[in-house]
Design brief:
single chain, 5-stranded parallel beta sheet, Helicase, Ruva Protein, domain 3, Rossmann fold
Length: 320
């Protein structure tokens, strides 16, 4: 990790999302150190819980305009009119008249085509202009492959190339398990600061953490460590992870179970793919099952049956 990055980690940035000595994280952080001082637009790509906002703030903190504000806009909650209003307000300087150095568009995949068209109208080419000819840095974040969304006609090509000056892929925790011990230590220090008694994990507990697939990524690990500290009982906090069947953990982490039957393997792969598609559709529609059924092009009753059949977790809503 570069000395510059180390100095930034001493600041209030959410260091837990950035820490890591594995080759994947070392390469990612080296790229951040190279890109951050430039004015190029950045697209952050990663699953929920991988630290996209933390990296947006890190890029801003390492930029030449780190002393100026960063403005976050959550795309999932905006219609075209509100999107235009918030972006224009940010570029004008907001209520306090202070221009942002960085505009962070979080969840750009949530923008409908009308909102995308509105955004392109504000940012037609080059970096958006501020008063007196100054520029504003654009950082965007997504949890999906926008290139595929462009090919499918779900995301405007001109907007995609506008926000994707340089892309940074944030790896899920299951792809960087070598960093789990250091991350656990970091979160333990964070949550036990000022306490007399410290918490330690034995080798069995660490093996349990490493074997788990972490669908919630670093955010899930952080919450688990917080539970350990709150309960002052490592075993109790780990009980839910230990209760997860190892075969389920293997499937979640992408490891193929051994089998001698091609038909069995094909059926298992089909079920995993179907489950993944359903989960992604539910996440995109905020667990609105009717909208998810429309996206998947199946009937509402069929989706309910499949949700029950594959034991999809999480609450749902039928609101339109």
């Amino acid at each position: 990790m570069t000395p510059q990055l180390n100095s930034v980690l001493d600041s209030p940035v959410e260091a837990g999302f950035v820490l890591g000595q594995g080759p994947t994280m070392l390469a990612l952080n080296a790229m951040v150190a190279d890109i951050a001082p430039t004015d190029i637009s950045v697209l952050l790509i990663g699953e929920s819980g991988t630290g996209k906002e933390a990296y947006a703030r890190l890029v801003h903190r390492m930029s030449r305009t780190q002393d100026l504000p960063l403005k976050k806009i959550s795309c999932a909650t905006l219609d075209p009119t509100r999107l235009l209003g918030q972006v224009q307000d940010a570029l004008r300087g907001g209520s306090n008249g202070e221009h942002p150095a960085c505009l962070f568009l979080d969840g750009v995949e949530e923008l409908d085509l009308a909102s995308q068209r509105a955004l392109v109208s504000i940012l037609p080419d080059g970096e958006p202009e501020l008063a007196r000819g100054k520029k504003v840095r654009l950082i965007s974040a997504t949890s999906v492959n926008l290139g595929k969304a462009v090919d499918a006609g779900q995301f405007r090509r001109e907007l995609y190339f506008r926000i994707n000056g340089a892309s940074l892929r944030l790896p899920p925790l299951r792809e960087r398990k070598e960093d789990i011990p250091a991350l656990v230590e970091h979160f333990l220090m964070k949550f036990t600061a000022g306490q007399r008694e410290s918490i330690t994990l034995n080798s069995e507990a660490m093996e349990t953490l490493i074997a788990y697939s972490w669908p919630g990524n670093i955010r899930e690990l952080e919450n688990l460590v917080k539970k350990m500290v709150a309960l002052a009982d490592t075993k109790a906090a780990l009980s839910e992870l230990r209760a997860t069947p190892r075969s389920v953990r293997r499937i979640s982490s992408g490891e193929e179970p051994k089998t001698t039957s091609l038909k069995v393997a094909a059926r298992a792969a089909s079920r995993r793919t179907e489950r993944e598609l359903i989960l992604k559709a539910l996440e995109r529609t905020h667990w609105n099952r009717k909208r998810a059924a429309q996206e998947l092009q199946i009937s509402y009753k069929s989706l309910l049956y499949k949700i029950k059949q594959i034991e999809v977790p999480g609450p749902g809503t039928d609101e339109l």
